[in-house]
Every structure is written in C-alpha cells, then in structure tokens.
Amino acid sequence: MTIRTITELLDDYRAGRTSVRALLGDVMRTVRAGDDRNIWITTLTDEQLEPYLQRLEQADPASLPLYGIPFAIKDNIDLADVPTTAACPDFAYTPEVSAFVVQQLIEAGAVPVGKTNLDQFATGLVGTRSPYGACGNAFDPAYVSGGSSSGSAVAVALGQVAFSLGTDTAGSGRVPAAFNNLVGVKPTRGILSASGVVPACRTLDTISIFAMTVGDAQQVLEAAASYDVGDAYARPDQVPALGHCSIPVEGFRFGVPLPEQLQFFGDDGAKRLFESAVERLERLGGERVELDFEPFLETARLLYEGPWVSERYTAIRQFMEQKPEALFPVTRQIIGGGASPLAADAFAAQYRLQELRRQSEAVWNHMDLIVTPSAGTIYTIEQVNADPVQLNSNLGYYTNFMNLLDFSALAVPAGFLPSGLPFGVTLFAPAFYDQDLLAIGDRLHRHGPDRLAASTQPLPRQPLVEARHEHVIPVAVCGAHMRGLPLNGQLTERNARFLARTRSAPDYRFYVLPGGPPERPGMVRVSDDGAAVELEVWAVPSDRFGSFVAGIPAPLGIGKVRLENGTHVCGFVCEAEAVAGAEDITALGSWRAYLSRAG
C-alpha cells in the first residue's frame, strides 16, 4: 500500500477520490495481514470500527480537520471499550471512556485502528521490554525500534496509519521517531492532557505525536491541544516565560553542546550526520552557539539515579506488590528500585534540580533553541538483550533531562547511517515554543534526505509550516522606540523581539511633535499627498502588550498601520489635531534621517 500523509488523505477525501469505508478497509487488511514486528497488542474489530465509519459517512469531509485519518494509540492510553494493558496482561482493564486527547482526535474525525506495543509500563527507550515481543525497527527488524512508544512509531513508519500517539517521560516520543525516520513531537508538559493515561512519572509525563511530516504533526497537535480542566497537571498554551516571545525562522541562534560533551558511543556515521544537520541549520539562517551541556547532563542523571524512580513505583505500587512476577524482569528491576529512596532524598533531589534549572535558564539569554542528536547511536535487539540497562541508558543521554527542565522538543529525521538505518536530531527550547520549533523543524526536514518514513517515496509537497500561536503581537514603531534610540528599552524590557526593518505604505504625513525629551514623531494617515515612512516591526509578547500601550502618552496611540506590502499591523499613530503647527518632515521619510539632520 502506498504511504500517504494526512494532507494527502484529506485531499483524496475532499476530492472524492476515496471514501472513509474504502480507505479503512485497506488499512485494516494491511494491519491484519501479519505482525512480524510485534507492532500491535489489540486491533479493532469491524464491529468496533462501524460507529466511527457511520458517523463520518454522514459528515462532509471538509467539515472535520482530521476526517477519516487512521491512527494508532500506545497501549498505556485509554480507548473506550478496548483493553488498556500497559504491556502487562495481568494489569489490563477496559475503560468506559477514552483518554481526553483520544476523544479530541475522534471528534476531529480521526479513526482509531488499535493499541500498540510498548516497553512495559513505558519504562525503556528500546522497545524490547514487552511480553508481547520485542518491536522490530521499520527498516531492519533485527534492530531496536526505540521505545517505549515502539509500536506507535513503527506503525506510522510502515504506513499502516497516518499518525500515532505515544507518551514521553524520558525520550519515548523522540528516540523511536529517530530510529524510524519520523517526526516526533514532545510537547510542552500539560498542553496535551494526560487524563486517561497510565502514569509513568505523573509530574513529567506527556502524550507525544508521531507523524511522517512536520505539517501533519502540526495538524494533530492543534486538534488535540484543548485545555483539560480535569487534568491537575494540564496547562493552557501561553507566552513563554524564558527566552524571547517567538523564534524567527531566519536569524535564530541555536546551541550545540561542546564537542567533548557530544557522545556517539563510537558511531562515527552518527557523528557525521549530526555535523551535517548543524551545517544545514546554518544554511537555513541559523547562528551556531556552543554551550556547556553539563547542567543538562547532570539533570538527566537525576531521572533514574534519583528519587523520580519512586514516582514510577508509586504509579503501580499496589499492583507490583501483589503481582511482582507479572512484570518483565528488567522492568521489575528498574521500578522496584523506587521503593528504597526516602522522602529526604526526594527533597534533596528537588533542591538540586531547582539549582540546575536556574543554571540552564541562563543559556536562553544567548540562544533561541538547542539541537542535539535524538540518540547517539542505535543497537540491535540482540545487543540490548545482552546489556539491557547500560545500552538503554546510552539512548537516554540526550533525552532524560527534557521534562525535568520543562522544555518543548521536536525530533526531526536527519539522514541515514551507512547501515541504512535512520538518524535524527532533536530541537528543543523552553516551554511553550512548540509552534516555533515546528516551523524551524519543517525547514530542516525539507532540506534533509528526501525519503518519507520507511518508504522509498520522496517527501510530498506541502505548504511550509508557520508557527500558529498568539504569543506575540507585531507592532510597528517609527521613532524613539527604534533600536538604539531612547525609548527602545520599553520594548526590550518586555522581551519584545526585532522582526524587520520596513516602510509604511505611502499613506502618511510625518511630523516632529512638540515636547520632550525625548523628541517624538507623529505619523498621521492622509487620503492624498502621503508618503512612505521608515518603520521597525517588533514582536511584543501578548501578555505584555497592554502595559506597553498603557505607557504611551497622548496624542500618540496604537492603531493599525498599513505596510508597503499592503498588510496591516499594530503601530504608532497620532491624532491629526496634534500636528497643527508641528514641523513636517515627511520628505525625510525617516526619524533617523531627522535626528541625523538635527544633530
């Protein structure tokens, strides 16, 4: 079966080239034809699928953003009336309602196909720790698929479904993406509800998304990211507290760990591919900044060497104490270690984590995002079985710190090793930069190897991904708020970011207002005899826009300013009555030109 992305499937539905019943019939025949990679734990029956099909057959394909899109669900996430096992048959239960995120996707038109295999209780980055069998890599089943969201990644990579849900506590939404040539979204904790998810570490867990392209991932994220008041750890999307309010797709600064802190575990092919990805980011307009990665690495060690293992133990304590033999041996070994730490250990670790957070916060004064390998190398299933703990730990070198430090992250394909297996990189930034990372990650993906998932098909043509959020309000300034001038601090102290130097449409007269210091200009829109005025456009955080506007004295105010390209943005305007008798400097067309003349 030809692999098709969400965008392509939606085009087919809306053009009448296929029906939801025909497409899901093809999907289920493929899924049921055989499972030599141990992808699935449960697949839906025809009877279970029928209500989804009937509902969609009565709907307009253009009315639902994910109309008829087949998807898979990691089997620690609830789907109503289908068992949830967490890859432990003795733990299984059948929920009456779906997880909040699953229900959001169903309401958007997506169709669940089944529940996928995972490292038991989401404990592992390898995909081998399951009584349902080790999940084989989509490119070579002798190699690990990555975990714990193993089946979810392989199902998408093989084109059995168009997207899938995983979870990510310590890398489970990024490592499988890298190992199967997929995009993996590890969103900011809380913007995807964890209601209906079997917890691993409840304070750190997030649902993750696997897709073939960044554009597809963005569509799923937007459909799923509704605020859930029933989840105590849910958070609505908001303006980032760290860094600038947005990351530009050109002129961004990206951090790279110091060379001696990069770890590829002897894999020279992975090292070369990472260097190539960094060079592509530079060609895309990024500026490389080296950083000391030690605070991140120390934080990563806290996750499994500190008391957070106790949180995993707490999640299944009663079950584990009653049926310890039901757990996979290495899973029992790891989670069982969580019974030992004392409350004092937990507080000590929290204190150290807060110190490391403060250290890591400082880097965002110098860069917008950081890029690392998603994993430094890949192993065969045989290698992992021979040394399950250490090799799994190696795969978490670049991932285990992410949720402890409250970052948003995006895994992107970045090439192929000499063995033919995929390699990927991860872009990450502070919380709530999910959309910004999607925009940059999309451009990086398009400039990488032209291969869709595990197929030989090229990446399809899709519109460029743009960051779709309301974190910022563009504001055009024409005078003392421009860079290097006296009032520019009113923008920078609010974390505003310079976007562009441009000009207004030729619709304005430009004046020097009385008063000061500092001197200020007035820009008045006119119906004729106008001219263009030099402007700077700044992105102002939406939560600080009000305080900025409140400080603007009469006769100035904020209105809509028309730019030379015909678009409108918020900008400084002046009351026409205030310029009576004021010096007209329209012919200069620039406040800087006036200052230069006056000086």
Description:
The protein has helices at about 5-15, 20-30, 45-55, 100-105, 150-155, 175-180, 215-225, 270-285, 295-305, 310-315, 315-320, 330-335, 345-360, 380-385, 390-395, 435-445, 490, 545-550, 590-599; strands at about 40-45, 70-75, 110-115, 165, 185, 205-210, 255, 285-290, 370-375, 405-415, 420-430, 470-475, 495-505, 510, 520-525, 535-540, 555-560, 570-575, 585. The model has no long low-confidence stretch (mean pLDDT about 95). The protein has two domains: about 5-445, Amidase signature (AS) enzymes (Alpha-Beta Complex); about 470-599, Gamma-glutamyl cyclotransferase-like (Hypothetical upf0131 protein ytfp, Roll). The strands form three sheets. It has an eleven-stranded mixed beta sheet with strand order 1-3-2-4-6-5-10-11-9-7-8, sandwiched between helices. A hairpin with an 8-residue loop joins strand 14 (about 510) and strand 15. The termini are far apart. The protein contains 19 helices and 19 strands. With about 600 residues, the chain is of the alpha+beta class.
